[in-house]
Design a protein that fits this description.
Chain lengths: 478, 490
Amino acid sequence: MSSNDFEAVIGIEIHVQLNTKSKIFSSDSTTFDSGDNENTSPVSVGMPGTLPVLNKKAVEFAVKTGLALGCNVSQKSVFARKNYFYPDLPKGYQISQHDKPICEGGSVSFVVDGVKKTVSITRAHMEEDAGKSLHHGDCTLINYNRAGIPLLEVVSGPDMHSPAEAAQYCRTVRQIVRYLEVCDGNMEEGSLRCDCNVSVKRKNESTLGTKVEIKNVNSFRFVEKAIEYEIERQIEVLERGESIIQETRLWDPDKNRTFTMRVKEDAQDYRYFPEPDLLPVTITQESIDKIRQHLPELPANRRERFKSDFGLSDHDADLLTSEREIADYFEETASACKNAKAAANWIMSELLRELNQGSKQIQESSLKPSDLGALIRLIDEGTISGKIAKTVFQEMWVTGKSPQEIVKEKGLVQITDPQVIEALVEQVLNENSQQVAAHKSGAKKNLFGYFVGAVMKASKGQANPDLVNKIIQEKLKS
Amino acid sequence: MDLVNSSLTDISNAVKDQKISAEEVASFFFKRMKDLNQSLNAVVFEDENFLSAARVIDSKISKGEELGPLAGVPFGIKDMLCVRNLPATAGSKILQGFVPPYDSTAVAKLKNAGAVILGKLNQDEFAMGSSNETSIQGAVQNPWNNKYVPGGSSGGSAAAQASRMMAATLGTDTGGSIRQPASFCGVVGVKPTYGRVSRYGVIAYASSLDQVGPMTSTVEDAALTLEVISGFDAKDSTSSQRAVPEWTRALSKDLKGIRVGLLKECMRSSLHKDVEKSVENSIDELKKMGAEIVEVSLPLIEYAVPVYYLIAACEASSNLARYDGVKYGYRSDFKNLSSVDLETFYSQTRGEGFGAEVKRRIMMGTHALSSGYYDSYYLKAGKVRRLFVNQYKDAFKQCDVILSPVTAAPAFKLGERIADPLQMYLNDIFTTSTNLAGLPGMSVPFSLSTDGLPIGIQITANHFDEQRMLNVAWALESVAPAKGKRPHVF
């Protein structure tokens, strides 16, 4: 039996860190780079008698995300205590949502290998993050800065069947929460963490196989690799005639494999019960509708609009909508120059290359979209050549000056006067009489390009190339 | 000035009028507290800084600053409530050494009103007990008879108040922990409507039942203290937004048109004859004062104790999970921490840090919440709880307040019931239903038993109707046979 006889079933839980200024149940700051235990208070370290108070902004962000994921937002949801002991969990329970989450029943669509895929969202619930244990040799220190940071756990249905689908699902969710500006999506800082539930079954079987959870995977590449490894591992186990152990595993990026964290037998009974310190969360339909009205255009819609309005290809539309800021930049540039295709090309080739080299985000670019638009307009109006434009672009990138300014300062305006060009051509042909003779006799081919290059050089690149071509052709004929 | 017999208002006015300084008042009570406490063991931590707090009041007065209604009034606070920079142990070893850097809201409000805190008062460990015998700091004696318990869990507050170690005290009540010791010690004890007083800074036992309330010498003092500590608190999501009425000013003994419901079930149960007589006398007195007496029924009351012990234990098992030796409080003395695994760290710390009764309730609660049992225990208890609310709703259609005993018998002897948890739990039969329904209830001293022990009467009112409850109690207080009677320490 080969691995083709098996089918993988994948479901993903994504912990989205909602980027509110203060924690979900206290006024402590959520800044990432504060000193150890600086962002704590009696409430967030669970001192006796302290009580949680719900951050309304976190609820708003959760509703926003739920709506963008196509979920039903409950007008009444309930916080519950998830009880377990761990040193980084200050109260001995995590305040989460259990049987009445804030969002239920949505879906997300994306394209993998040219095929559209839709994954269902079972639920999304609010909860608080735990602190962080730092193991130093034989002692453990705990930083509670993260304890109480608001999370939205987005749970997908078991709808994916390949590592590529799973990774693309995660990317899509990240793109959505970034568009909504409810999460920075920074996986290195743990703002977005993925738990992957993987099982395999023989294709002809209808019941699902035993599921293994790979916890806290912190990049999309690792999501793909970890799932790929896990599918292969599980198929091998089954092919040996053994059975899968229900367990939680971790991904080791150095060894490129998953390993056991804990097996199901150790699994906790979380003894959920409604949190008596908090009232049920109630949201009126009115405020849900209001949040819905203020949702930004989501990536999928924007991508389609870019294709239909600007005639962009799938590839270009994908790239230009990958981040909300890039899409915004593109639209501003396109509207400034009325040439969407050129705007797309300049952004995708020149601008993104420079940004990548400088490890910069597009919103940090010193080159404004209105200036890039102006540059394109200078080309389209024939003021400068495409070649000169690249030089101007470089100058703009470094100095942040407008293209008009640079062109004026450096005298880069294109030469379009046929008499001036004719003079240059004659000068070049006179200086190269031997080559002209060789060309005319047919002794040497491909000298035409040489003449063009020499004329362009003589004009310092400013001559209109079309005119140069035309005039050389005329002169060589005579 | 006869400080021991003065009302809170009299003390506050005397201080404001500079007839006596806050410093003198505080010093007088502090000394009295130290002297009396040697036998009673009601105080577990003294506030050595009480003088500077009193001097702040005096200096404000000399500068002509406006002061609150409790200016210079000395208070004792149950150890369950956090007072900034004073230890808070809740009577438990597990909180040994913990000093909160914050005030509970109730205490902050007292301080704002000018009160001077003298110390922290003894209690059953985590308020789990009805005799004040489960405290790590030892048992408290009943000032009326040192062989008897003061009741619990606010036994320290009751004993301190009965012996007037301070002018007034605060307690907490989860299933009767204010009313029962108030009855046993002959003081007034009020458990307000759930949500009236913020729970912020109050060490949690059972969050959906816990309330802070005053324990005082008179109904008037209780009304004033309650007025000060009540009100919405942004730090407690379960605190009520309702305005706090001026209960003290509206106190009235006029009972005409007031319908007092006599709880049918309590008269059927086996009451101590002195308690029975006390209830009958109180009814007669109320009739004389113009109240209408009607019989009301709460058929489910026999389930109050089991439902209470389920819900309270479940919430406690979770509330007490934070005491793990990691962040603050007691940690087992591990010689070499690096060789200790996490489970040993927890079980040894918690095993040594919690007392037997607390462990019993943590285990009951953990069991009742665990998967497979949740529906038949916690969920069902919650449903019965809602039935209680409905039964009270019906009862309050027929009456304005309900009168019942606080407990079936007066105080019992030290050591008498500590080995029999069930007997101990049954103490709470008349008090727990009030907490389950979130209603206000209070105990007002009424008579003395043939053994010379105090017997209180319980008045329960509808949600947020503290005024009528206080009025009926005030009327009863004025005609109580025990009026003016004092324990032997006076």
